Amino acid sequence: MKRIISTIICISAAIIVCFSQNVPYERIYLSTDRSFYAAGETVYCSAFCLNENNGFSSFSSVAYVELYSSKGMAASAKIALQDGRGAGSIAIPSDLPTGNYRLSAYTAVAKNIPGFDFADGGCIVSVYNTTSVKKADEVLFTDDIVPAAAKEFGGLSIYGKDGIYSIMSPYSDAYVSVSVFKDEGLVNYNGSSIYSFLNSTPSYSSYTGFAIPEYDGEIIRATVSGEDGKPLSSLSNTDIYIGCPGNNEDLYAARLKEDGKATFYTSNIYGDKDMAVMLLEKAGQWDVSFASPFVGLSSADIPALQLSVKSKGAIERLGVASQVSKAFERDTIFTKMPVRRLPFLGSSHASYRLDDYTRLRSMREVFTEILKDVNMRSFGEVKRVFIRCEDNFNQIPSYRSTPSLVIIDGVPLLDHELLMDYDPLLFESIDVYPYEYSFGNTNYAGVLSLNTYKKDISGLNLGKETKIVSFKGVSYPLAFSNAGFPGNYPSLRQTLYWMPLAYLEAGKAFCPDFIVPERPGCYIIKVEGLTADYKPLYKEFKITVE
């Protein structure tokens, strides 16, 4: 059977839709675990991506999040979307001055809409830097602060007894985020709500620009430059690969244009990665850079943060809690929520765990004694790996005239001869995929995938045609709780529980699993989201510890 896996995702329909003026209008509402943070903390987000009819949009698969002030963007992140819902996080810089900042999210579709309101659906985040006296311009000093009262709507019910709390949507199923946090009385601005978001009417009349909608995932744009920093035009029509160590799914191909640019259509790459970039032709001295997908927002329309002497104690507690929780990260149980991946390799293959065999001293011996259907032989002036592959008619497997693709820890090895110089003790397992693959513009007769123990290509030479660069992918969707640890364990984390993609069945109780610490104060259960028929929901429940 011939397996053809193409890494260039079919986007023709999306492009046609885009430029025929029929792209759905997308806007995003962000719900966060709380609205006040110490500098250096992480903001956890739940995204609701809606279309022009206020229904969930299944068009885009990635959202871009920016934290910004009147001086520009302070931090950024990417969130994967699936059927209009997504979750992720954005790290607040530890040196960010005290002040209010706006947090907004958008998809690539917004870049084609003139006058798009990027602040629509965003929220105000208050940041307190307890290690610096620097303050943003939008800071006011006052004698007293009156916390803003939250407006509740949608008919949600929250009950609590003997440390067990339940949330119920009595009339309709609902998609919500649930957070539990300690209230320090620092919330002094009542920002946008999901109610006002749904009741605002988006206005648009035309589409301009050439931002391609990201239907399957983030579109990565790279530029290959020469020693002088100018784009390499000599490599026009050359294939270029990108791959992330430790994951065979993060492997993509593109073709360089005359201006040295290449476009990779991905299904989203998760986490901050060391990405390997490979040229299929020798280029001498070269470098690669990635274009930023962020707009780079700024706004003067941000309310001033109110500071009071009476808030000093609360701000100090917030700072201490931030520092202690970093030192005792185990007071929180993190759970990675399911993500959508489009695998590059199929599931049918031969796998060899090398510890099950006598450990050999050279890769040449491994090929001879273990990998019976894999061979290294001449291909023109160089040597290449060849795999005995099956054909379309299930006849006897045979060697093809085209070489195989060799992958180490998810990163292609273009110079196969280097493989013979590696110490086989570095490798934990070897997988052989005996089928024909189409990768980019090149056909390969099978794939040889080698996996080291650490899955990080450490100590391996990938050749001069490979560069390792840092890449910021979409953030992992995380849920967490402080439950499951002894009562004497330090628990100063401000957010006790976070479930960004909760689903409430009508009339059935949803019980968040968390433990209220024995620290005196007020704790709040916050639930925010939409019913199945797109009605807004918001509810807060206070827990007082004497």
Record field, number of beta strands: 33
Rg computed from alpha carbons, rounded to a whole number of angstroms? 27 Å
Spatial order of the strands in the main sheet?
Answer: 1-3-6-5-4-7-8-2
Q: Note the total helix count.
A: 4
Helix vs. strand class = mainly beta
Descriptive labels:
8-stranded mixed beta sheet; 6-stranded antiparallel beta sheet; 546 residues; 4 helices; disordered N terminus; 2 domains; mainly beta; elongated
Notes on the protein architecture:
The protein is mostly beta strands. It has two domains: 12-21 and 28-208 and 295-339 and 478-545, no CATH class; 350-459, TonB-dependent receptor, plug domain (Ferric Hydroxamate Uptake Protein, Chain A, domain 1). It has helices spanning 12-19, 194-199, 312-327, 363-369; strands at 27-32, 36-38, 42-50, 62-69, 72-82, 85-91, 99-106, 123-128, 139-141, 157-161, 164-168, 174-183, 219-226, 239-243, 251-255, 261-265, 272-279, 286-290, 305-307, 333-336, 350-353, 374-379, 382-389, 398-399, 405-408, 411-412, 427-439, 442-452, 466-472, 478-481, 495-504, 521-531, 536-545. An eight-stranded mixed β-sheet has the order 1-3-6-5-4-7-8-2. A six-stranded antiparallel β-sheet has the order 20-30-31-12-32-33. Strand 32 and strand 33 (536-545) form a beta hairpin.
Chain-wise SSE layout:
Blueprint: H1 12-19, E1 27-32, E2 36-38, E3 42-50, E4 62-69, E5 72-82, E6 85-91, E7 99-106, E8 123-128, E9 139-141, E10 157-161, E11 164-168, E12 174-183, H2 194-199, E13 219-226, E14 239-243, E15 251-255, E16 261-265, E17 272-279, E18 286-290, E19 305-307, H3 312-327, E20 333-336, E21 350-353, H4 363-369, E22 374-379, E23 382-389, E24 398-399, E25 405-408, E26 411-412, E27 427-439, E28 442-452, E29 466-472, E30 478-481, E31 495-504, E32 521-531, E33 536-545
Parallel strand pairs: 2-8, 9-19, 25-28
Antiparallel strand pairs: 1-3, 3-6, 4-5, 4-7, 5-6, 7-8, 10-11, 12-31, 12-32, 13-16, 13-18, 14-15, 14-17, 17-29, 20-30, 21-27, 22-23, 23-24, 25-26, 27-28, 30-31, 32-33
